[in-house]
Write a structure and sequence with these properties.
There is one protein chain. This protein is α/β, with parallel strands linked by helices. The protein has a domain of 201 residues. 52% of the residues lie in helices and 8% in strands. It is built from 30 helices and 12 strands. Helix 23 runs parallel beside helix 24. The longest helix is centred in the first third of the chain and has 29 residues. Bound molecules: uridine-5'-diphosphate-glucose and manganese (II) ion (MN).
Length: 775
C-alpha cells in the first residue's frame, strides 16, 4: 500500500467500512483479534466504597460548619475555618481522584496476530521524533543510545525514519549522530542476528558482560561502541569536536562547517542533515536502513520558540516534507526502547479493524518507566499514580505524557470529523512525498518550514500540532486533543516498552515538578480550564481527571494547614479535634485510614513489583511536594501571571555525579543545593518534632491529673489524641529530614544555612503561639 492510501485508511475519511477487508487482504474466515480489554474487578469494590466515603466527607463538612456557627471566639473560628478550607480542597481532590477509579481498564495486545490481519509490506510508515536541548545536561551519547534503540526496532527498516531535534544546536550532538550513523551499520545487523532484546548499546553492554554466541563479534562491536563513546565524550570535554575525529568523513566535515563562529545556541540558521537515507544506505549485511535525520530548527532571540512543543511542531513539518509517515512516535532523549516489539504492539491499535473506532484514535500512550531507581524509590521517581495508575482509569483514554507515545499524524490537524488544513499542503497529513529525503527540493522545503518566523499567522500551536501556552505541553496537547473528540489508548505491557532515567537529588526532583505545576496551572486558570471547558467538552469524569492535574498544586493548601495548625495548637495544649469518646473521632480515623489504605491498594495493584516500602516513600513524597514544589509552584505561577517573573523550561539534568549516585543507591536523601523550598520543609519537620514532645508532655500531665484547669483531666488528655497521632505521623515521615539536618555530615545533607533559617522560623511560630496564648 502506498503511503497516501495509508493516510486515508487511518483517517477513515475516504475509505468506507467495506474497504477494510479488501485492504487486509488475507482472506481468513474471521480475523483473529489484535487487542482486547476488560474492566478490572477492583471496580466492584471501589464504587460502593466511593459512595460511603462521599457520605463521610459530607458528614465532616457538616461537622465543621456547625462548629463554625457555634464558635464564640475569633481564634477558634479561625482554626475551624482553616480546617473547613483544607477539607474542601481535600474533598475536591478526592473527587478528581475518584474519576480514575470507577472505570479501570486493562488491555492486552496480540502482536502475534498482526501479520494474519495485515501484510508486513502494508505496515504503515513511522516517524520517530527524539528531542534534545542541551549537550551538557543531556549527554549526546545518551541521545544516540535512544536513537539506536528505536532504529533497531523489529520493523521493516525502510518504513522507519528517526528525526532528532537538537534545540541545543550543538555540533557535538551532531557529530555524535554522524558517528552513530556509522555504528548503526554494524549495530542493527548485530541485534537482528543475535536476537538482542536491549537494543540500546549502553543497556546491552551493561547487562551482557559476554555474549552467549559469537564472542568475537561481541568484542568487535563493543570496541567499536566504546571508541565512538570516547570520541563524543572527549569532544564534550573540550567543548569542540577535534578535527582529526572527522577528517576522514567528508560529509560530516562539510556539515560541521555550518557551525561558524557566529553560530550560537540562541541564534543560528536551520541545520538539517540526512545521516542515513533508506534509499541509499545499507548495513554491513546489505539490508536497508532506516532514515536518520538531524534537525536543529532556526533560532533567533527575537522569537519565542515554545520550548519542546515548538521543537516537535518543527519536526512535524520537516518530517511531513521528507517522509510524512501516518504514525509518529515522540520520545524524550533519555527514553530508550527496552523492547524491540513495541512498535508492533502499538500497531495492534493502529490497525484496529473497526473503522469507527479507528477513525477516532488519536494516540497510544505507553507509561513512562524508569531504570536505575533505588530500592525503596525514595523520591517516588516512578510516579506510579501519574504514569501507571491514573492513565488506565481515564474513561476515554489516557492523557499524553510527552514520551513513549504513538500519534496518528492526522490527529494533530483538527477534530476527527473536521480537519484543519495547514497553510501549505506539503506539511499536511495528506501530502504525498515524492523524491528522496536527500533531494534538493525536499531539503529546501524542510529548511523553509523549520525557520523561526514560519509559524507567524498560522494555526500551529493553537489548532494544529502540539499546543502552546503551557510548560507542560504534553498534558495540554493531550487534553486539547481529547476535547476535540480524539480517543486514546493506554498500553502497559509487563516488560517496559521504554526506560528513562530519574533525577537523583531532591533539588532536581522538586525543580522538575515545580515546572510541571507552573505549566499545569497555566492550563487550570486559562479559558480552556478543565473545570469549565473540559467538563463541557468531555463530560464530568474526564473533565475531573484533567482537573486532578490542573489543580495539583492546590494540594499544598491542606498539607500546609494540616502540618502546622494542629501541631501549634498541640504545643499550646489546645485541643482542636474531637475527643476519643466522640463519634466524630471515628469519622476522622475512617477518613484518614480509608484514604491511605485506598491509595496503598491502588499502588500495590498497579503491579510491576510494587512494594509497601515504595508506597510509604511515595506517600511521603506527596507531603514533601505539598510543602515545597507545589507551594512554590503556586507562588511562581502567581508571579508569572502578574508579569513579575518569567519561568522558562528548565531542563532536567541527565548527568550523574559519582558521589550523588552513590548516595542515591544507598537510599540516602540528597538535598543537593540550597533552596528556599527546603526551608518550609525543615520548618515543618522541626515544628512537628517539638510539638509532639510538648504534646506528649501535656497528655501525660492531663492524664495524671496535673496542670489541667478543666477539672476533667482524662477528657483534656483525650482531646489531644488525634493531634498527637497526626504529629507522630509527620515525624515518622520526616525521619530522613532530621537525619539530614542534625546527624549527617556528608555533602548531601541539608545545608546548614537552610537548617538555621528553618529553626529561626519554627521558633518564631512557637513564640507567636505563646504570646497569643497569654494575651
Ligand atoms: O526547549 C526545550 C526544552 C526541552 N526539550 C526536550 O524536552 C524533553 C523533556 O525535558 P526534561 O528536562 O527531560 O523534562 P522532564 O520534566 O523530565 O519531562 C517531562 O515533562 C515535560 C514537560 O514539562 C515533557 O515534555 C516530558 O515529555 C516529560 O517526560 C527533553 O528531551 C528535552 O530535550 C526541548 O526539546 N526543547
Ligand atoms: Mn525527562
Amino acid at each position: 500500500m502506498r503511503l497516501s492510501s495509508w493516510t486515508y485508511f487511518l483517517r477513515g475519511l475516504k475509505y468506507s467500512k467495506y474497504d477494510f477487508p479488501r485492504m487486509v487482504s488475507r482472506s481468513e474466515p474471521a480475523n483473529p483479534p489484535l487487542s482486547s480489554s476488560k474492566l478490572f474487578l477492583r471496580a466492584a469494590a471501589y464504587r460502593p466504597f466511593a459512595l460511603i466515603y462521599a457520605f463521610a466527607i459530607l458528614a465532616l463538612l457538616y461537622h465543621h460548619t456547625r462548629r463554625l456557627l457555634l464558635s464564640t471566639s475569633t481564634s477558634s473560628s479561625f482554626v475551624i475555618l482553616s480546617f473547613l478550607v483544607a477539607d474542601l480542597f481535600l474533598a475536591f481532590m478526592w473527587a478528581t481522584t475518584e474519576s480514575f477509579r470507577l472505570f479501570p481498564l486493562g488491555r492486552r495486545e496480540y502482536p502475534e496476530n498482526l501479520e494474519k490481519v495485515i501484510r508486513r509490506e502494508d505496515f504503515p510508515g513511522v516517524d520517530v521524533f527524539i528531542c534534545t536541548a542541551d549537550p551538557y545536561k543531556e549527554p549526546p551519547v545518551g541521545v544516540v543510545n535512544t536513537a539506536l534503540s528505536v532504529m533497531a526496532y523489529d520493523y521493516p527498516p525502510e518504513k522507519l525514519s528517526v528525526y532528532v531535534s537538537d534545540d541545543g544546536g550543538s555540533e557535538i550532538t551532531f557529530f555524535a549522530f554522524a558517528e552513530a550513523a556509522k555504528f548503526a551499520r554494524h549495530w542493527l545487523p548485530f541485534c537482528r542476528e543475535n536476537k538482542i532484546v536491549e537494543r540500546s548499546p549502553e543497556d546491552y553492554f551493561a547487562s551482557n558482560q559476554d555474549s552467549g554466541g559469537d564472542s568475537r563479534s561481541y568484542q568487535t562491536i563493543k570496541t567499536m561502541y566504546e571508541s565512538m563513546r570516547t570520541k563524543v565524550e572527549n569532544s564534550l570535554q573540550r567543548g569542540k569536536v577535534p578535527e582529526d575525529y572527522y577528517s576522514d568523513n567528508e560529509e560530516a566535515c562539510k556539515a560541521l562547517d555550518q557551525w561558524t563562529p557566529a553560530f550560537t545556541r540562541q541564534d543560528h540558521p536551520s541545520v538539517i542533515e540526512v545521516l542515513l537515507d533508506k534509499d541509499r544506505d545499507q548495513d554491513i549485511t546489505g539490508f536497508s536502513m532506516p532514515n536518520l535525520v538531524y534537525v536543529s530548527r532556526e533560532k533567533n532571540k527575537s522569537f519565542h520558540h515554545h520550548f519542546k512543543a515548538g521543537a516537535l511542531n518543527a519536526l512535524v513539518r520537516v518530517s511531513a516534507v521528507m517522509t510524512n509517515a501516518p504514525v509518529i512516535l515522540t520520545l524524550d532523549c533519555d527514553m530508550r526502547s527496552n523492547d524491540p516489539g513495541t512498535l508492533l504492539r502499538a500497531l495492534c491499535y493502529v490497525c484496529e479493524p473497526d473503522p469507527d473506532v479507528r477513525s477516532k484514535l488519536g494516540y497510544i500512550q505507553f507509561p513512562q518507566r524508569y531504570d536505575g531507581i533505588n530500592e525503596g524509590d525514595i523520591y517516588a521517581g516512578e510516579f506510579r499514580r501519574l504514569f501507571q495508575i491514573n492513565p488506565m482509569g481515564m474513561k476515554d483514554g489516557p492523557s499524553y505524557v510527552g514520551t513513549g507515545c504513538f500519534f496518528l499524524r492526522r490527529c494533530l490537524f483538527g477534530p476527527p470529523g473536521a480537519p484543519v488544513m495547514p497553510e501549505i499542503p506539503v506539511v499536511g497529513p495528506d501530502h504525498m512525498v515524492v523524491g528522496s529525503v536527500r533531494s534538493k527540493e525536499v531539503l529546501a522545503s524542510a529548511t523553509r518550514v523549520s525557520t523561526c518566523n514560519y509559524e507567524e499567522n498560522t494555526n500551529w500551536g493553537s489548532k494544529m500540532g502540539f499546543r502552546y501556552g503551557s510548560l507542560v505541553e504534553d498534558y495540554y496537547t493531550g487534553y486539547r486533543l481529547q476535547c476535540e473528540g480524539w480517543q486514546t489508548v493506554f498500553c502497559n505491557p509487563e516488560r517496559a516498552a521504554f526506560l528513562g532515567g530519574v533525577p537523583i537529588t531532591l533539588f532536581d526532583v522538586l525543580n522538575q515538578q515545580k515546572r510541571w505545576t507552573v505549566g499545569l496551572q497555566e492550563v487550570g486558570y486559562s479559558k480552556y480550564s478543565p473545570i469549565t471547558f473540559g467538563i463541557r467538552c468531555m463530560g464530568l469524569l474526564m473533565g475531573l481527571s484533567y482537573c486532578f492535574y490542573a489543580f495539583w498544586a492546590t494540594w499544598s493548601v491542606p498539607v500546609t494547614i494540616y502540618s502546622l495548625l494542629p501541631q501549634l495548637a498541640l504545643f499550646s495544649g489546645v485541643s482542636v479535634f474531637p475527643k476519643v469518646s466522640e463519634p466524630w473521632f471515628a469519622l476522622y480515623i475512617f477518613l484518614f485510614v480509608g484514604a491511605y489504605l485506598h491509595d496503598l491498594s491502588d499502588f500495590i495493584l498497579s503491579g510491576h513489583g510494587a512494594t509497601v516500602r515504595q508506597w510509604w516513600n511515595d506517600q511521603r513524597m506527596w507531603s514533601v511536594r505539598g510543602l515545597t514544589c507545589f507551594l512554590f509552584g503556586m507562588v511562581e505561577f502567581a508571579c508569572k501571571s502578574l508579569g513579575i517573573s518569567t519561568q522558562g523550561f528548565n531542563i532536567t539534568s541527565k548527568t550523574q555525579d559519582e558521589e550523588q549516585s552513590k548516595r542515591y543507591d544507598q537510599g540516602i536523601f540528597d538535598f543537593g543545593a540550597v533552596s528556599p523550598m527546603f526551608v518550609t520543609l525543615g520548618m515543618v519537620a522541626v515544628v512537628n518534632l517539638i510539638s509532639l514532645a510538648q504534646g506528649l508532655g501535656h497528655y501525660a500531665a492531663a492524664a495524671l491529673g496535673k496542670g489541667s484547669s478543666t477539672g476533667d483531666h482524662a477528657e483534656a488528655a483525650e482531646g489531644l489524641v488525634l493531634q498527637i497521632l497526626l504529629a507522630g505521623f509527620v515525624v515518622a515521615n520526616c525521619w530522613p529530614i532530621y537525619d539530614a539536618m542534625f546527624l549527617r555530615s556528608d555533602k548531601g545533607r541539608l545545608p546548614v544555612k537552610v537548617t538555621a533559617v528553618s529553626l529561626v522560623l519554627a521558633s518564631v511560630l512557637f513564640t507567636a503561639c505563646t504570646i497569643s496564648r497569654y494575651n
